[in-house]
């Protein structure tokens, strides 16, 4: 089980805006902020999550990398649809519209977007096979 994951971003304000919009439909928000001063000059960071638990971190201080893939659990297919719509409106690029992906597993419903730094971000609902 993974406790948390972090991605380096090139522009923290832009990434904040994107992720707050894209992950809001999944119930994910900023729960912790760490300033550049707090890290002793090693970047500023935002911890996103729920219920006070920051499980997804974005931050500066290192060069942003691309090609990472992160999938977030959605409570239902409507939340996947809302994630996709919000992410696209926030500047994401389409990498797979919402829909069933039975080739992954029965009941797999997901959407994929590319974030402003080129990472593949997914929302997935593991529902009943249709």
UniProtKB/TrEMBL annotation:
InterPro entries: Glyas_Bleomycin-R_OHBP_Dase, Glyas_Fos-R_dOase_dom, VOC_core. Residues 1-126 form the VOC domain. PANTHER family: GLYOXALASE FAMILY PROTEIN (AFU_ORTHOLOGUE AFUA_5G14830). This is VOC family protein. It comes from Paracoccus pacificus. The lineage of its organism: Bacteria, Pseudomonadati, Pseudomonadota, Alphaproteobacteria, Rhodobacterales.
């Amino acid at each position: 089980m993974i406790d948390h994951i972090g991605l380096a971003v090139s522009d923290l304000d832009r990434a904040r805006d994107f992720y707050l919009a894209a992950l809001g439909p999944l119930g994910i928000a900023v729960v912790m902020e760490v300033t550049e001063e707090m890290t002793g000059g090693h970047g500023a960071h935002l911890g996103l999550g729920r219920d006070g638990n920051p499980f997804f971190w974005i931050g500066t201080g290192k060069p942003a990398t691309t090609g990472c893939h992160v999938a977030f659990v959605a409570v239902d297919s409507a939340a996947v649809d809302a994630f996709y719509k919000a992410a696209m409106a926030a500047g994401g690029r389409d990498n797979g519209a919402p829909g069933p992906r039975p080739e992954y597993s029965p009941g797999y419903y997901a959407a994929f977007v590319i974030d402003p730094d080129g990472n593949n971000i997914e929302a997935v609902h593991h529902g009943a096979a249709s």
